[in-house]
Amino acid sequence: MEIRSELKYTKDHEWVKVEGNQAKIGITDYAQGELGDIVYVEIETLEESLGKEEIFGSVEAVKTVSDLFLPVSGKVLEVNKNLEDNPELINEDPYEKGWIIRMEIENPEELKDLLDSDSYKKLIG
């Protein structure tokens, strides 16, 4: 299981790659492993501004559906279009090809609440 040191993490098993005032968001390698084969990704919040921890979409796997929570307040700018036809990219490459959304960060102070890689490792045991 891969946990990258350059990323931030949430207790809901999402990763955050901060790029200036924007961030890419996806689910962690741990999360995709727990969910199993991902068959569908639904994001209906494109161009919407949402608060921290609001639901921005969902991931459907063979055995369950899991909500996705925005790690910080902001606006959803882009959805990874490759996931429409290939949702399994999240299983195959959760940190690169399997990213889910790109967002504009509204309140950079909220980034302090995210976990670093060591804290995330402790969370998942």
Write structural notes for this entry.
- The chain has 125 residues and is α+β, with helices and mostly antiparallel strands.
- 18% of the residues lie in helices and 35% in strands.
- The chain has four helices and nine strands.
- The radius of gyration is 13 Å and the shape is globular.
- The termini are close together.
Q: What oligomeric state do the depicted chains represent?
A: single chain
Helix content: 10-25%
Classify the beta-strand content into a percent band.
35-45%
Mean pLDDT: 97
The number of distinct structural domains comes to 1
Instruction: Estimate the global geometry from the Cα principal axes.
Output: globular
Q: Total strand count, please?
A: 9
Unreliable parts: none
Spatial strand sequence of the major β-sheet = 1-2-3-9-8-5
Structural class: alpha+beta
CATH architecture: Beta Barrel
Please give the count of helices.
Answer: 4
CATH superfamily: RNA polymerase II/Efflux pump adaptor protein, barrel-sandwich hybrid domain
Structure summary:
With 125 residues, the protein is of the alpha+beta class.
What's the arrangement of secondary structure elements?
Layout: E1 8-9, E2 14-19, E3 22-27, H1 29-35, E4 38-42, E5 49-50, E6 55-61, E7 65-69, E8 74-79, H2 82-85, H3 89-92, E9 101-105, H4 117-124
Antiparallel strand pairs: 1-2, 2-3, 3-9, 4-6, 5-8, 6-7, 8-9
Notable characteristics:
125 residues; alpha+beta; OB fold (Dihydrolipoamide Acetyltransferase, E2P); 6-stranded antiparallel β-sheet; 3-stranded antiparallel β-sheet; 4 helices; globular
